[in-house]
Design brief:
7 helices, 170 residues, TIM Barrel
Length: 170
């Protein structure tokens, strides 16, 4: 993947049963990637992700405690960034950014606040995740529902032409 141009790895600690994999296993994965960096001389990003908020594990105080514990462990192992997706409250975001020395990344969601709020909280990377495609799905479903009731107003008012579409595929 690196030879093909990949610039980083996103290591998730979430398991299919919504539990978290052991910290030691995640640290070992990060350390293996650190060795790969040394062996290859390639400078890629190791983005260590915790799914504690994504999977909404524990109560809020415990979530933050677990996120901090994992952030410190992943940082110590050599991670370049710490990714905490999910509905992370702004107070928790601030605590994470103030506590860790590596950049904290989050995923944009209703709990995250505005871009300027996130900048003030110290967030260095923002992921849109599946937000754009979910927005499109919602619009397609709404359009289908309108069409089922013979409401073609939005289709008739659309100004996006075939030429517009083709410009994106040249």
């Amino acid at each position: 993947m690196l030879e093909a141009g990949a610039v980083g790895f996103n290591l998730e600690d979430g398991c299919s049963d919504k539990s978290l994999s052991p910290i030691e296993l995640q640290q070992a994965k990060i350390q293996a990637l650190m060795e790969l960096k040394k062996e290859t001389g390639l400078d890629f990003v190791i983005n260590a992700r915790t799914c504690v908020y994504w999977n909404q594990l524990f109560d809020e105080d415990t979530r933050l405690k677990v996120a901090l514990e994992r952030g410190f462990a992943y940082e110590k192992a050599g991670a370049d960034c710490f990714f905490v997706p999910g509905p992370v409250p702004q107070a928790a975001i601030q605590r994470l950014t103030e506590s860790l020395s590596i950049p904290v990344n989050i995923i944009l969601n209703p709990a995250s606040g505005s871009i300027s709020d996130l900048q003030e909280l110290g967030v260095k990377r923002l992921s849109l995740g599946s937000g754009p495609v979910r927005t499109i799905y919602q619009q397609v479903i709404e359009l289908a529902q309108e069409t089922a009731t013979h409401d073609f107003h939005r289709i008739q008012q659309a100004s996006f032409t075939y030429d517009d579409a083709n410009r994106y595929f040249r």
